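INFO  loader      accepted 1 record
INFO  loader      residues=293
INFO  predictor   begin
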Amino acid sequence: MDENGRVWVARARGKFKIDAEIKSSNPIAVGDWVTLLLEDEAAGTAIITAIEPRRNYMVRVSPQNRHHKHIVASNLDEALVVATIHSPRTSNGFLDRFLITAEAYHIPATIVFNKADLIQGEYEAEWENRKALYESIGYKTFTIQATEPASIAQLSRHLQGKTTLISGHSGVGKSTLINALLPDLELKVQSLSDWSGKGQHTTTFAQMYDMNQSSHIIDTPGVKEFGIVAIDQYELAQYFPEMRALMHECKFNNCLHINEPQCAVKEALGEAVSFERYDSYLNILDSLPKTNY
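INFO  predictor   done
INFO  writer      dumping tokens
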């Protein structure tokens, strides 16, 4: 769609795959601004001749090549992750990998806890703990029932004037939420798999929808895990805000916050740094390529 709202069918020149700044399986992503060379104005076809510099972008490991990035979307004002306490359960590891990626690419992130009707009994305490944990770090959270439009009124106001990427596990109600935000859209919604209790993919590629002229939503495929790519093991702690605030007090500049002496992060465990987030840090650190400092 151009600045005047006209939709064009455009094809890219092959050189983008060669000249791309990063090793990516998709050189052009949803949210990119591009330069078009009109091919047939009457038919509405054009050729993409250039990609404008990106303000930011969200990436994950490419499904085709784990050594390449897959640009999920670009030029974002916010990245929103939809989570559920159960049916299915969104792990802390998934949330933290998403938040780390958003931090690394300078995108404000928000957590939306969906299926509020299921937050009862034993699950209520877990929701309260998670909500308090992430809010204490500085992340904004919403708790909603996506099947009830009135429940998302505050979230809808929050999204006004922004281009927002929405992601989450399959089955967390992402499509239901987008349908509630955009009632005329009628995205396909699929129930949880009877045998696994996990969601089935209803979105196969990222797509942008307009809430209004200044507010846009980018729907992304449901993912089982948000694979981190191109983050060095010595960088990782920088993308945990609570650890970033302390790491300059560590004795060593290359502290990995594992067993080094006089580590400010380790000394803050159970207080400024939660054990849950620290466990996520260790698990993610273990998955990253090892480099010499």
